[in-house]
Amino acid sequence: MSGLRRLGIDEIALRKGHKDFAVVLSDLDTHRLIGMAPARTHAAIEAVLNTWGAEVLSNIEEVSMDLSGNYRGLVHRLMPQAEIVADRFHVMSLVNQELNQARNALRRTPEALAEGVTPEAAKAALKSSKYALLKPEAHLTKTQQDKLVEVKAVSPKLALMHQTKEAFRTRFEAQSWAQALPGFLGWMGTAQSLYPEAVATMKRWFGEILQYFEHRTTSGVVEGINTRLKLIKRSGRVHQL
């Protein structure tokens, strides 16, 4: 592990629907799993990191993580020289989660619908609409495109939230943090009323979000490892049956 320079930190649920998590530590350059902590507490993670030795930790230059807030203080303490990068996919997921919450709320209690739209018609349009709203619009299938048109027709709020979500996605196309800065600030001002939780989190992590444009570091490698670990877990359950 002497060559470790870029570290990815993410978590994986040990049991679906429960609050049991393990923390996955990965080398973002070699795409290798290099450690796992049995819980997402600082003590559990620190115990694993300390086994690597001070020399390894002192050579880590970047750490990519989600925006949970659980690991930032630990990294500052154990790896003060490392720059923390907020993973762009987790930043985007903040927006998607709030959009999906609004979709689910409208499914339960249809309100503020377009003129002439009944609650029954709204519920029908919103059925199976999750991916039509959350996927990048450019990647939608024809069926999903049709569903998105249905959703926008019944709910002006979801139509505006979707438009605002797609606008946010383009902010990551900036070529530098200086170019990205006005776009992010402008988006947060415009989106405050639609995405209050996402905007509040972005404000707390603004520096780390802009670090993405310095290094283009993401935890996509970690997500791939997490996916393989989930497949292993499922396979293990099958063999136990």
Automatic annotation (TrEMBL):
Q: Which Pfam families match?
A: DDE_Tnp_ISL3 (PF01610)
Residue spans making up a coiled coil are none
Which residues belong to any copy of the Transposase IS204/IS1001/IS1096/IS1165 DDE domain? 7-237
Q: What is the protein's name according to its record?
A: Transposase IS204/IS1001/IS1096/IS1165 DDE domain-containing protein
Which domain of life, per UniProt? Bacteria
